Amino acid sequence: MASPGSGFWPFGAEEGSAAAESPGTARAWCQVAQKFTGGIGNKLCALLYGDAEKPAETGAKAAPGAAEQRPACACDQKPCSCPKADVNYAFLHATDLLPACNGEMTTMSFLQDVVDILLQYVVKSFDRSTKVIDFHYPNELLQEYNWELADQPQTLEEILLNCRTTLKYAIKTGHPRYFNQLSTGLDMVGLAADWLTSAANTNMFTYEIAPVFVLLEYVTLRKMREMVGWPGGCGDGIFSPGGAISNMYAMLIARFKMFPEVKEKGMAAIPRLVAFTSEHSHFSVKKGAAALGIGTDSVILIRCDERGKMIPSDLERRILEAKQKGFVPFLVSATAGTTVYGAFDPLIAIADICKKYKIWMHVDGAWGGGLLMSRKHKWKLNGVERANSVTWNPHKMMGVPLQCSALLVREEGLMQSCNQMHASYLFQQDKHYDLSYDTGDKALQCGRHVDVFKLWLMWRAKGTTGFEAQIDKCLELAEYLYNKIKNREGYEMVFDGKPQHTNVCFWYIPPSLRSMEDNEERMSRLMKVAPMIKARMMEYGTTMVSYQPLGDKVNFFRMVISNPAATHQDIEFLIDEIERLGQDL
Protein backbone atom coordinates (compact mmCIF):
# COMPACT_ATOMS: atom_id res chain seq x y z
CA MET A 1 0.00 0.00 0.00
CA ALA A 2 0.97 3.64 -0.25
CA SER A 3 3.50 5.36 1.95
CA PRO A 4 2.60 8.89 3.12
CA GLY A 5 3.37 11.57 0.59
CA SER A 6 4.35 9.13 -2.17
CA GLY A 7 1.23 9.22 -4.28
CA PHE A 8 -0.50 11.29 -6.92
CA TRP A 9 -2.56 14.35 -6.13
CA PRO A 10 -4.18 17.00 -8.36
CA PHE A 11 -2.26 20.21 -8.92
CA GLY A 12 -5.37 22.23 -9.58
CA ALA A 13 -8.63 22.50 -11.45
CA GLU A 14 -8.82 24.38 -14.70
CA GLU A 15 -11.59 26.89 -15.13
CA GLY A 16 -14.65 25.11 -16.51
CA SER A 17 -13.47 21.67 -15.40
CA ALA A 18 -15.63 19.32 -13.36
CA ALA A 19 -13.53 19.93 -10.28
CA ALA A 20 -13.91 23.68 -10.63
CA GLU A 21 -17.67 23.56 -11.24
CA SER A 22 -18.73 20.93 -8.71
CA PRO A 23 -18.03 21.45 -4.98
CA GLY A 24 -18.71 17.75 -4.41
CA THR A 25 -16.13 16.73 -6.98
CA ALA A 26 -13.68 19.25 -5.56
CA ARG A 27 -14.16 17.76 -2.11
CA ALA A 28 -13.61 14.27 -3.52
CA TRP A 29 -10.34 15.33 -5.14
CA CYS A 30 -9.23 16.94 -1.90
CA GLN A 31 -10.03 13.83 0.08
CA VAL A 32 -7.85 11.84 -2.30
CA ALA A 33 -5.12 14.46 -1.91
CA GLN A 34 -5.36 14.18 1.87
CA LYS A 35 -5.28 10.36 1.65
CA PHE A 36 -2.08 10.39 -0.35
CA THR A 37 -0.26 13.41 1.07
CA GLY A 38 -1.41 13.86 4.64
CA GLY A 39 -1.10 17.46 5.84
CA ILE A 40 0.15 18.64 2.47
CA GLY A 41 -3.26 17.81 1.03
CA ASN A 42 -4.98 20.10 3.56
CA LYS A 43 -2.77 23.02 2.59
CA LEU A 44 -3.09 22.24 -1.12
CA CYS A 45 -6.89 22.16 -1.07
CA ALA A 46 -7.09 25.27 1.06
CA LEU A 47 -4.95 26.99 -1.54
CA LEU A 48 -6.87 25.67 -4.54
CA TYR A 49 -10.47 25.73 -3.31
CA GLY A 50 -10.50 27.97 -0.25
CA ASP A 51 -10.97 27.02 3.42
CA ALA A 52 -14.52 25.84 2.80
CA GLU A 53 -13.27 23.11 0.48
CA LYS A 54 -10.69 21.56 2.82
CA PRO A 55 -11.03 17.76 2.90
CA ALA A 56 -12.46 17.72 6.41
CA GLU A 57 -15.83 16.67 5.03
CA THR A 58 -15.14 12.97 5.17
CA GLY A 59 -18.83 12.19 4.97
CA ALA A 60 -19.03 12.95 1.25
CA LYS A 61 -20.21 9.94 -0.76
CA ALA A 62 -17.79 8.35 -3.16
CA ALA A 63 -18.74 7.32 -6.65
CA PRO A 64 -19.96 3.73 -7.10
CA GLY A 65 -17.05 1.33 -6.94
CA ALA A 66 -14.71 4.06 -5.79
CA ALA A 67 -12.51 3.99 -2.73
CA GLU A 68 -13.98 4.27 0.74
CA GLN A 69 -12.39 7.38 2.22
CA ARG A 70 -10.39 7.05 5.42
CA PRO A 71 -8.30 9.62 7.27
CA ALA A 72 -4.70 9.88 6.13
CA CYS A 73 -2.12 8.48 8.52
CA ALA A 74 0.78 10.42 9.96
CA CYS A 75 3.17 7.54 10.62
CA ASP A 76 6.81 7.45 9.60
CA GLN A 77 6.92 3.79 8.57
CA LYS A 78 8.02 2.96 5.04
CA PRO A 79 6.28 1.11 3.58
CA CYS A 80 3.30 2.31 5.55
CA SER A 81 0.95 -0.38 6.87
CA CYS A 82 -1.81 1.97 7.98
CA PRO A 83 -5.28 1.37 6.49
CA LYS A 84 -5.93 3.11 3.21
CA ALA A 85 -8.93 3.42 0.97
CA ASP A 86 -10.19 0.01 -0.14
CA VAL A 87 -11.00 -0.77 -3.74
CA ASN A 88 -12.01 -4.26 -4.77
CA TYR A 89 -10.13 -4.60 -8.04
CA ALA A 90 -11.41 -8.13 -8.52
CA PHE A 91 -14.59 -6.71 -10.08
CA LEU A 92 -13.07 -3.73 -11.88
CA HIS A 93 -11.57 -3.41 -15.35
CA ALA A 94 -9.72 -0.79 -17.39
CA THR A 95 -13.11 0.52 -18.50
CA ASP A 96 -13.73 1.64 -14.90
CA LEU A 97 -10.74 4.00 -15.05
CA LEU A 98 -10.70 7.46 -16.56
CA PRO A 99 -12.14 8.57 -18.89
CA ALA A 100 -15.01 6.51 -17.46
CA CYS A 101 -17.79 8.50 -15.82
CA ASN A 102 -17.09 8.74 -12.07
CA GLY A 103 -13.76 7.03 -12.66
CA GLU A 104 -11.62 9.55 -10.82
CA MET A 105 -11.42 7.83 -7.45
CA THR A 106 -10.81 4.37 -8.87
CA THR A 107 -8.14 5.79 -11.17
CA MET A 108 -6.36 7.57 -8.35
CA SER A 109 -6.40 4.47 -6.17
CA PHE A 110 -5.24 2.21 -9.02
CA LEU A 111 -2.39 4.50 -10.01
CA GLN A 112 -1.38 4.83 -6.36
CA ASP A 113 -1.11 1.05 -6.11
CA VAL A 114 0.96 0.97 -9.29
CA VAL A 115 3.25 3.60 -7.80
CA ASP A 116 3.52 1.52 -4.62
CA ILE A 117 4.72 -1.42 -6.73
CA LEU A 118 7.24 0.79 -8.52
CA LEU A 119 8.53 2.38 -5.32
CA GLN A 120 9.04 -0.99 -3.67
CA TYR A 121 11.03 -2.07 -6.72
CA VAL A 122 13.10 1.12 -6.63
CA VAL A 123 13.95 0.68 -2.94
CA LYS A 124 14.86 -2.98 -3.46
CA SER A 125 17.10 -2.03 -6.40
CA PHE A 126 19.47 -0.25 -4.01
CA ASP A 127 19.33 -2.93 -1.31
CA ARG A 128 22.50 -5.02 -1.48
CA SER A 129 20.80 -7.85 0.40
CA THR A 130 18.43 -8.39 -2.53
CA LYS A 131 19.27 -10.30 -5.69
CA VAL A 132 20.35 -8.53 -8.85
CA ILE A 133 18.38 -11.16 -10.76
CA ASP A 134 15.88 -13.90 -9.92
CA PHE A 135 16.99 -16.09 -12.81
CA HIS A 136 14.71 -18.62 -14.47
CA TYR A 137 15.23 -20.34 -17.80
CA PRO A 138 12.87 -19.19 -20.58
CA ASN A 139 10.87 -22.43 -20.62
CA GLU A 140 10.40 -22.20 -16.83
CA LEU A 141 8.98 -18.70 -17.02
CA LEU A 142 6.76 -19.61 -19.94
CA GLN A 143 5.34 -22.59 -18.04
CA GLU A 144 5.02 -20.88 -14.66
CA TYR A 145 2.88 -17.97 -15.86
CA ASN A 146 0.29 -17.43 -18.54
CA TRP A 147 1.72 -14.64 -20.68
CA GLU A 148 -0.69 -15.12 -23.60
CA LEU A 149 -3.04 -12.42 -24.85
CA ALA A 150 -6.77 -13.12 -24.69
CA ASP A 151 -9.99 -11.78 -26.20
CA GLN A 152 -11.54 -10.95 -22.82
CA PRO A 153 -10.10 -8.31 -20.47
CA GLN A 154 -8.40 -9.11 -17.20
CA THR A 155 -9.50 -7.44 -13.98
CA LEU A 156 -7.47 -4.64 -12.48
CA GLU A 157 -6.48 -7.05 -9.72
CA GLU A 158 -4.87 -9.27 -12.35
CA ILE A 159 -3.28 -6.24 -14.01
CA LEU A 160 -1.59 -5.27 -10.75
CA LEU A 161 -0.41 -8.86 -10.38
CA ASN A 162 1.05 -8.66 -13.91
CA CYS A 163 2.99 -5.56 -12.82
CA ARG A 164 4.38 -7.29 -9.73
CA THR A 165 5.31 -10.43 -11.64
CA THR A 166 7.06 -8.50 -14.39
CA LEU A 167 9.23 -6.62 -11.91
CA LYS A 168 9.86 -9.74 -9.85
CA TYR A 169 11.80 -11.27 -12.76
CA ALA A 170 13.22 -8.03 -14.14
CA ILE A 171 16.96 -7.44 -13.84
CA LYS A 172 17.66 -4.76 -11.22
CA THR A 173 19.83 -2.62 -13.47
CA GLY A 174 20.02 0.02 -10.72
CA HIS A 175 21.50 -2.47 -8.23
CA PRO A 176 24.98 -1.39 -7.05
CA ARG A 177 26.34 -4.82 -8.06
CA TYR A 178 24.98 -4.86 -11.60
CA PHE A 179 27.95 -4.31 -13.95
CA ASN A 180 26.75 -6.19 -17.00
CA GLN A 181 26.16 -3.41 -19.53
CA LEU A 182 27.33 0.09 -20.35
CA SER A 183 23.93 1.42 -19.24
CA THR A 184 23.45 0.88 -15.50
CA GLY A 185 22.06 2.73 -12.51
CA LEU A 186 18.70 4.25 -11.67
CA ASP A 187 18.55 8.00 -11.26
CA MET A 188 15.58 9.29 -9.26
CA VAL A 189 15.22 12.60 -11.12
CA GLY A 190 15.56 10.80 -14.45
CA LEU A 191 12.91 8.32 -13.35
CA ALA A 192 10.55 11.13 -12.38
CA ALA A 193 11.16 12.78 -15.74
CA ASP A 194 10.39 9.54 -17.56
CA TRP A 195 7.09 9.24 -15.68
CA LEU A 196 6.21 12.82 -16.63
CA THR A 197 7.15 12.17 -20.26
CA SER A 198 4.81 9.17 -20.37
CA ALA A 199 2.00 11.17 -18.80
CA ALA A 200 2.44 13.95 -21.38
CA ASN A 201 2.40 11.29 -24.14
CA THR A 202 3.21 13.49 -27.09
CA ASN A 203 5.32 13.36 -30.22
CA MET A 204 8.42 15.35 -31.12
CA PHE A 205 7.70 16.23 -34.74
CA THR A 206 6.18 19.71 -34.36
CA TYR A 207 6.25 22.62 -31.93
CA GLU A 208 2.48 22.79 -31.90
CA ILE A 209 2.11 19.45 -30.08
CA ALA A 210 5.34 19.47 -28.02
CA PRO A 211 6.23 23.12 -27.40
CA VAL A 212 8.25 22.74 -24.20
CA PHE A 213 9.94 19.49 -25.23
CA VAL A 214 10.98 20.91 -28.61
CA LEU A 215 12.51 23.96 -26.92
CA LEU A 216 14.31 21.78 -24.38
CA GLU A 217 15.74 19.67 -27.19
CA TYR A 218 16.98 22.84 -28.88
CA VAL A 219 18.60 24.12 -25.66
CA THR A 220 20.11 20.77 -24.65
CA LEU A 221 21.56 19.88 -28.06
CA ARG A 222 23.12 23.35 -28.31
CA LYS A 223 24.74 22.86 -24.89
CA MET A 224 26.07 19.45 -25.93
CA ARG A 225 27.55 20.95 -29.11
CA GLU A 226 29.22 23.64 -27.00
CA MET A 227 30.82 20.90 -24.91
CA VAL A 228 32.05 19.18 -28.06
CA GLY A 229 33.80 22.47 -28.84
CA TRP A 230 31.83 23.91 -31.74
CA PRO A 231 31.75 27.72 -31.38
CA GLY A 232 28.57 28.93 -29.71
CA GLY A 233 27.08 25.47 -29.96
CA CYS A 234 26.58 25.94 -33.70
CA GLY A 235 25.24 23.13 -35.83
CA ASP A 236 22.33 20.75 -35.62
CA GLY A 237 21.32 17.49 -33.98
CA ILE A 238 18.59 15.15 -32.91
CA PHE A 239 17.81 12.59 -30.24
CA SER A 240 17.48 9.15 -31.77
CA PRO A 241 16.58 5.61 -30.60
CA GLY A 242 20.09 4.63 -29.55
CA GLY A 243 23.69 4.98 -30.66
CA ALA A 244 23.33 2.54 -33.55
CA ILE A 245 20.73 4.81 -35.17
CA SER A 246 22.79 7.91 -34.39
CA ASN A 247 25.77 6.33 -36.16
CA MET A 248 23.56 5.44 -39.12
CA TYR A 249 22.33 9.05 -39.27
CA ALA A 250 25.97 10.16 -39.51
CA MET A 251 26.62 7.76 -42.39
CA LEU A 252 23.42 8.89 -44.14
CA ILE A 253 24.31 12.59 -43.83
CA ALA A 254 27.94 12.06 -44.87
CA ARG A 255 26.78 10.27 -48.02
CA PHE A 256 24.28 13.05 -48.80
CA LYS A 257 26.92 15.73 -48.25
CA MET A 258 29.19 14.15 -50.87
CA PHE A 259 26.47 12.98 -53.29
CA PRO A 260 23.17 14.82 -52.68
CA GLU A 261 21.65 13.18 -55.77
CA VAL A 262 21.56 9.85 -53.92
CA LYS A 263 18.43 11.02 -52.13
CA GLU A 264 16.36 10.85 -55.32
CA LYS A 265 18.34 8.54 -57.58
CA GLY A 266 19.70 5.96 -55.14
CA MET A 267 23.01 4.13 -54.93
CA ALA A 268 23.02 3.22 -58.63
CA ALA A 269 23.64 6.88 -59.50
CA ILE A 270 26.84 7.26 -57.47
CA PRO A 271 30.28 5.58 -57.36
CA ARG A 272 31.21 2.72 -55.02
CA LEU A 273 31.55 4.25 -51.54
CA VAL A 274 33.76 2.98 -48.73
CA ALA A 275 33.83 3.83 -45.02
CA PHE A 276 36.59 3.23 -42.49
CA THR A 277 36.42 2.32 -38.83
CA SER A 278 38.59 0.48 -36.34
CA GLU A 279 38.50 -3.29 -35.86
CA HIS A 280 37.34 -2.59 -32.27
CA SER A 281 34.50 -0.28 -33.31
CA HIS A 282 30.83 -0.94 -32.65
CA PHE A 283 29.02 -3.33 -34.99
CA SER A 284 26.48 -0.58 -35.77
CA VAL A 285 28.84 0.92 -38.36
CA LYS A 286 28.56 -2.21 -40.50
CA LYS A 287 24.87 -2.54 -39.71
CA GLY A 288 24.27 1.03 -40.89
CA ALA A 289 26.13 0.33 -44.13
CA ALA A 290 23.94 -2.71 -44.70
CA ALA A 291 20.73 -0.76 -44.01
CA LEU A 292 21.71 2.12 -46.31
CA GLY A 293 22.60 -0.14 -49.23
CA ILE A 294 26.31 0.65 -49.00
CA GLY A 295 27.10 -2.92 -47.97
CA THR A 296 29.17 -4.40 -45.17
CA ASP A 297 32.01 -5.19 -47.60
CA SER A 298 32.36 -1.44 -48.07
CA VAL A 299 33.29 -0.93 -44.42
CA ILE A 300 37.06 -1.28 -44.13
CA LEU A 301 38.36 -2.21 -40.69
CA ILE A 302 41.54 -0.44 -39.56
CA ARG A 303 44.06 -2.17 -37.31
CA CYS A 304 44.35 -1.19 -33.66
CA ASP A 305 47.28 -1.15 -31.26
CA GLU A 306 47.45 -3.38 -28.19
CA ARG A 307 45.25 -0.97 -26.22
CA GLY A 308 42.51 -1.00 -28.87
CA LYS A 309 43.21 2.40 -30.47
CA MET A 310 43.00 2.90 -34.22
CA ILE A 311 46.42 3.14 -35.89
CA PRO A 312 46.38 6.33 -38.04
CA SER A 313 49.10 5.14 -40.43
CA ASP A 314 47.03 2.07 -41.27
CA LEU A 315 44.01 4.29 -41.86
CA GLU A 316 45.89 6.41 -44.37
CA ARG A 317 47.30 3.32 -46.08
CA ARG A 318 43.84 1.80 -46.49
CA ILE A 319 42.38 5.08 -47.80
CA LEU A 320 45.05 5.21 -50.51
CA GLU A 321 44.44 1.56 -51.41
CA ALA A 322 40.70 2.20 -51.76
CA LYS A 323 41.24 5.25 -53.98
CA GLN A 324 43.61 3.27 -56.20
CA LYS A 325 40.85 0.70 -56.71
CA GLY A 326 38.46 3.44 -57.83
CA PHE A 327 36.41 3.50 -54.63
CA VAL A 328 35.30 6.77 -53.03
CA PRO A 329 36.12 7.16 -49.31
CA PHE A 330 33.25 9.12 -47.77
CA LEU A 331 33.38 8.49 -44.01
CA VAL A 332 35.81 7.69 -41.21
CA SER A 333 34.12 6.63 -37.98
CA ALA A 334 36.49 7.06 -35.05
CA THR A 335 35.56 5.72 -31.63
CA ALA A 336 35.74 7.57 -28.32
CA GLY A 337 35.35 4.72 -25.85
CA THR A 338 35.23 1.33 -27.54
CA THR A 339 32.70 -1.18 -26.25
CA VAL A 340 35.14 -3.80 -24.95
CA TYR A 341 38.46 -2.11 -24.15
CA GLY A 342 37.09 1.40 -23.60
CA ALA A 343 39.73 2.76 -25.99
CA PHE A 344 39.84 6.31 -27.37
CA ASP A 345 41.06 6.59 -30.94
CA PRO A 346 43.66 9.36 -31.61
CA LEU A 347 41.18 11.93 -32.88
CA ILE A 348 43.66 14.68 -33.77
CA ALA A 349 45.68 12.42 -36.07
CA ILE A 350 42.50 11.01 -37.61
CA ALA A 351 41.15 14.56 -38.15
CA ASP A 352 44.35 15.48 -40.00
CA ILE A 353 43.92 12.51 -42.35
CA CYS A 354 40.23 13.28 -42.95
CA LYS A 355 41.08 16.89 -43.76
CA LYS A 356 43.87 15.80 -46.13
CA TYR A 357 41.60 13.48 -48.12
CA LYS A 358 38.38 15.49 -47.71
CA ILE A 359 36.49 12.72 -45.85
CA TRP A 360 33.65 13.18 -43.37
CA MET A 361 34.88 12.52 -39.83
CA HIS A 362 32.40 10.98 -37.42
CA VAL A 363 33.16 10.28 -33.76
CA ASP A 364 31.20 7.50 -32.11
CA GLY A 365 31.26 8.79 -28.53
CA ALA A 366 28.23 6.78 -27.44
CA TRP A 367 30.22 5.35 -24.52
CA GLY A 368 32.96 7.93 -24.02
CA GLY A 369 31.14 11.17 -24.83
CA GLY A 370 30.15 11.65 -21.20
CA LEU A 371 33.80 12.32 -20.34
CA LEU A 372 33.36 15.75 -21.92
CA MET A 373 31.64 16.59 -18.62
CA SER A 374 34.87 15.93 -16.70
CA ARG A 375 37.70 18.46 -16.54
CA LYS A 376 39.97 15.62 -15.42
CA HIS A 377 39.20 13.21 -18.28
CA LYS A 378 37.91 15.22 -21.27
CA TRP A 379 41.43 15.39 -22.74
CA LYS A 380 40.84 11.83 -23.94
CA LEU A 381 38.52 13.32 -26.59
CA ASN A 382 40.97 16.00 -27.76
CA GLY A 383 40.25 16.61 -31.44
CA VAL A 384 36.52 15.83 -31.23
CA GLU A 385 35.82 19.47 -32.04
CA ARG A 386 37.19 18.81 -35.55
CA ALA A 387 34.60 16.11 -36.25
CA ASN A 388 31.73 16.66 -38.68
CA SER A 389 29.39 14.63 -36.48
CA VAL A 390 29.37 13.07 -33.03
CA THR A 391 27.28 10.36 -31.37
CA TRP A 392 26.83 10.82 -27.62
CA ASN A 393 24.67 8.54 -25.45
CA PRO A 394 23.73 10.16 -22.11
CA HIS A 395 21.98 6.90 -21.18
CA LYS A 396 25.39 5.31 -20.72
CA MET A 397 28.07 7.12 -18.73
CA MET A 398 25.75 9.90 -17.54
CA GLY A 399 23.16 7.48 -16.15
CA VAL A 400 20.13 8.93 -17.93
CA PRO A 401 17.30 6.35 -18.14
CA LEU A 402 17.11 4.47 -21.43
CA GLN A 403 16.92 5.57 -24.08
CA CYS A 404 18.78 8.83 -24.66
CA SER A 405 21.16 9.14 -27.61
CA ALA A 406 22.12 12.28 -29.47
CA LEU A 407 23.55 12.76 -32.96
CA LEU A 408 25.31 16.12 -33.21
CA VAL A 409 26.14 17.62 -36.63
CA ARG A 410 28.49 20.56 -37.13
CA GLU A 411 26.85 21.92 -40.30
CA GLU A 412 23.46 23.48 -39.68
CA GLY A 413 20.69 22.62 -42.14
CA LEU A 414 22.39 19.57 -43.62
CA MET A 415 20.29 17.07 -41.68
CA GLN A 416 17.11 18.85 -42.78
CA SER A 417 18.13 18.83 -46.45
CA CYS A 418 19.08 15.18 -46.26
CA ASN A 419 15.88 13.87 -44.70
CA GLN A 420 13.00 16.28 -45.30
CA MET A 421 9.98 15.12 -47.30
CA HIS A 422 7.69 18.16 -46.83
CA ALA A 423 4.67 16.26 -45.52
CA SER A 424 2.01 18.96 -45.81
CA TYR A 425 -0.29 17.44 -43.20
CA LEU A 426 2.39 18.01 -40.52
CA PHE A 427 4.73 20.72 -41.75
CA GLN A 428 2.40 23.37 -43.13
CA GLN A 429 4.33 26.41 -44.30
CA ASP A 430 1.72 29.00 -43.22
CA LYS A 431 1.70 28.31 -39.48
CA HIS A 432 1.67 31.27 -37.14
CA TYR A 433 5.00 30.51 -35.38
CA ASP A 434 8.68 30.07 -36.30
CA LEU A 435 8.73 26.92 -38.46
CA SER A 436 12.35 26.17 -37.57
CA TYR A 437 10.97 24.61 -34.38
CA ASP A 438 9.08 21.98 -36.38
CA THR A 439 12.00 19.58 -36.19
CA GLY A 440 10.31 16.38 -37.31
CA ASP A 441 11.18 16.60 -41.00
CA LYS A 442 14.90 16.27 -40.33
CA ALA A 443 14.36 12.89 -38.66
CA LEU A 444 14.02 9.53 -40.36
CA GLN A 445 11.17 8.74 -38.01
CA CYS A 446 7.77 10.35 -38.09
CA GLY A 447 6.71 9.41 -34.59
CA ARG A 448 9.58 10.26 -32.24
CA HIS A 449 9.65 9.68 -28.50
CA VAL A 450 10.45 12.50 -26.07
CA ASP A 451 13.95 11.52 -24.93
CA VAL A 452 15.26 14.94 -23.97
CA PHE A 453 13.28 15.72 -20.83
CA LYS A 454 15.00 13.21 -18.54
CA LEU A 455 18.44 14.48 -19.60
CA TRP A 456 17.43 18.12 -19.26
CA LEU A 457 15.83 17.62 -15.83
CA MET A 458 18.80 15.63 -14.54
CA TRP A 459 21.17 18.32 -15.83
CA ARG A 460 19.12 20.93 -13.99
CA ALA A 461 19.18 18.81 -10.82
CA LYS A 462 22.90 17.96 -10.91
CA GLY A 463 24.48 20.74 -12.88
CA THR A 464 27.50 19.98 -15.04
CA THR A 465 29.55 19.67 -11.85
CA GLY A 466 27.24 16.94 -10.56
CA PHE A 467 27.67 14.89 -13.72
CA GLU A 468 31.41 15.52 -13.51
CA ALA A 469 31.58 14.16 -9.95
CA GLN A 470 29.53 11.11 -10.92
CA ILE A 471 31.73 10.31 -13.92
CA ASP A 472 34.98 10.91 -12.03
CA LYS A 473 33.80 8.54 -9.31
CA CYS A 474 33.11 5.74 -11.80
CA LEU A 475 36.55 6.13 -13.39
CA GLU A 476 38.16 6.11 -9.94
CA LEU A 477 36.34 2.87 -9.10
CA ALA A 478 37.64 1.31 -12.32
CA GLU A 479 41.19 2.25 -11.40
CA TYR A 480 40.59 0.86 -7.90
CA LEU A 481 39.56 -2.50 -9.38
CA TYR A 482 42.58 -2.51 -11.69
CA ASN A 483 44.95 -1.83 -8.80
CA LYS A 484 43.32 -4.56 -6.69
CA ILE A 485 43.67 -7.34 -9.27
CA LYS A 486 46.68 -6.46 -11.47
CA ASN A 487 49.09 -8.33 -9.19
CA ARG A 488 46.58 -10.55 -7.38
CA GLU A 489 47.00 -14.31 -7.61
CA GLY A 490 44.50 -15.83 -10.00
CA TYR A 491 44.08 -12.76 -12.23
CA GLU A 492 45.62 -11.81 -15.57
CA MET A 493 45.01 -8.50 -17.32
CA VAL A 494 44.02 -8.60 -20.99
CA PHE A 495 46.27 -5.62 -21.71
CA ASP A 496 48.84 -3.73 -19.69
CA GLY A 497 48.30 -0.34 -18.12
CA LYS A 498 45.56 1.56 -16.36
CA PRO A 499 42.10 1.51 -17.95
CA GLN A 500 41.35 4.38 -20.32
CA HIS A 501 37.67 4.35 -19.42
CA THR A 502 35.80 2.29 -16.81
CA ASN A 503 36.38 -0.90 -18.82
CA VAL A 504 38.62 -3.33 -16.91
CA CYS A 505 39.35 -6.50 -18.90
CA PHE A 506 40.79 -9.55 -17.17
CA TRP A 507 40.87 -13.34 -16.91
CA TYR A 508 40.22 -15.19 -13.69
CA ILE A 509 42.56 -18.20 -13.54
CA PRO A 510 41.21 -21.00 -11.30
CA PRO A 511 43.75 -22.87 -9.12
CA SER A 512 43.60 -25.87 -11.47
CA LEU A 513 45.03 -23.80 -14.35
CA ARG A 514 47.63 -21.69 -12.56
CA SER A 515 50.48 -24.17 -12.91
CA MET A 516 49.68 -25.24 -16.46
CA GLU A 517 51.85 -24.28 -19.40
CA ASP A 518 50.45 -21.59 -21.67
CA ASN A 519 49.35 -23.90 -24.46
CA GLU A 520 46.27 -24.79 -26.48
CA GLU A 521 44.81 -27.03 -23.78
CA ARG A 522 45.07 -24.26 -21.19
CA MET A 523 43.39 -21.78 -23.55
CA SER A 524 40.63 -24.28 -24.28
CA ARG A 525 39.93 -24.72 -20.58
CA LEU A 526 40.30 -21.01 -19.79
CA MET A 527 37.76 -20.19 -22.49
CA LYS A 528 35.09 -21.97 -20.42
CA VAL A 529 35.86 -20.27 -17.09
CA ALA A 530 34.17 -16.88 -17.57
CA PRO A 531 30.93 -18.35 -19.00
CA MET A 532 30.65 -20.82 -16.12
CA ILE A 533 31.27 -18.16 -13.47
CA LYS A 534 28.76 -15.86 -15.18
CA ALA A 535 26.14 -18.63 -15.19
CA ARG A 536 26.67 -19.18 -11.46
CA MET A 537 26.44 -15.44 -10.81
CA MET A 538 23.04 -15.36 -12.47
CA GLU A 539 21.76 -18.49 -10.73
CA TYR A 540 22.78 -17.14 -7.33
CA GLY A 541 21.65 -13.64 -8.33
CA THR A 542 24.53 -11.95 -6.52
CA THR A 543 26.08 -9.86 -9.28
CA MET A 544 26.40 -9.62 -13.06
CA VAL A 545 29.42 -8.79 -15.20
CA SER A 546 29.90 -9.36 -18.92
CA TYR A 547 32.44 -11.51 -20.76
CA GLN A 548 33.47 -12.06 -24.38
CA PRO A 549 36.29 -13.24 -26.64
CA LEU A 550 38.09 -10.73 -28.84
CA GLY A 551 40.32 -11.60 -31.77
CA ASP A 552 42.66 -14.36 -30.65
CA LYS A 553 41.87 -13.81 -26.98
CA VAL A 554 39.59 -16.38 -25.34
CA ASN A 555 36.66 -15.37 -23.12
CA PHE A 556 37.57 -12.73 -20.55
CA PHE A 557 35.60 -10.58 -18.14
CA ARG A 558 34.83 -7.02 -19.21
CA MET A 559 33.97 -5.04 -16.11
CA VAL A 560 32.35 -1.65 -16.74
CA ILE A 561 31.22 0.88 -14.15
CA SER A 562 28.60 3.52 -14.91
CA ASN A 563 26.41 3.17 -11.82
CA PRO A 564 27.02 5.99 -9.30
CA ALA A 565 25.58 3.75 -6.55
CA ALA A 566 28.61 1.42 -6.75
CA THR A 567 31.29 1.70 -4.05
CA HIS A 568 34.70 0.27 -3.20
CA GLN A 569 32.92 -2.39 -1.17
CA ASP A 570 30.98 -3.50 -4.26
CA ILE A 571 34.22 -3.83 -6.20
CA GLU A 572 35.69 -5.96 -3.41
CA PHE A 573 32.51 -8.04 -3.33
CA LEU A 574 32.83 -8.72 -7.06
CA ILE A 575 36.42 -9.93 -6.67
CA ASP A 576 35.50 -12.21 -3.77
CA GLU A 577 32.44 -13.54 -5.61
CA ILE A 578 34.39 -14.39 -8.75
CA GLU A 579 36.86 -16.32 -6.62
CA ARG A 580 34.11 -18.07 -4.66
CA LEU A 581 32.28 -19.16 -7.79
CA GLY A 582 35.39 -20.11 -9.75
CA GLN A 583 37.60 -21.86 -7.22
CA ASP A 584 36.54 -25.37 -8.23
CA LEU A 585 36.67 -24.93 -12.01
From TrEMBL:
Recorded topology in the membrane: Peripheral membrane protein; Lipid-anchor
Keywords carried by this UniProt record: Cell membrane, Cell projection, Cytoplasm, Cytoplasmic vesicle, Decarboxylase, Golgi apparatus, Lipoprotein, Lyase, Membrane, Neurotransmitter biosynthesis, Palmitate, Phosphoprotein, Pyridoxal phosphate, Synapse
Superkingdom of source: Eukaryota
Localization terms from the record: Cytoplasm, Cytosol; Cytoplasmic vesicle; Golgi apparatus membrane; Presynaptic cell membrane
Record keyword Membrane present: yes
Cofactor entry: pyridoxal 5'-phosphate
Enzyme Commission numbers on file: 4.1.1.15
Enzyme class: lyase
Record PROSITE patterns: DDC_GAD_HDC_YDC
InterPro entries for this protein: PyrdxlP-dep_de-COase, PyrdxlP-dep_Trfase, PyrdxlP-dep_Trfase_major, Pyridoxal-P_BS
One of the Pfam families matching this protein, by short name: Pyridoxal_deC
Quaternary structure and interacting proteins, as annotated: Homodimer.
PANTHER family: GLUTAMATE DECARBOXYLASE 2, GLUTAMATE DECARBOXYLASE-RELATED
Family membership noted in the UniProt record: Belongs to the group II decarboxylase family.
Chain's role: Catalyzes the production of GABA.
Protein name: Glutamate decarboxylase 2
Annotated organism of origin: Apteryx mantelli (North Island brown kiwi)
Lineage, broadest ranks: Eukaryota, Metazoa, Chordata, Craniata, Vertebrata
Protein's gene: GAD2
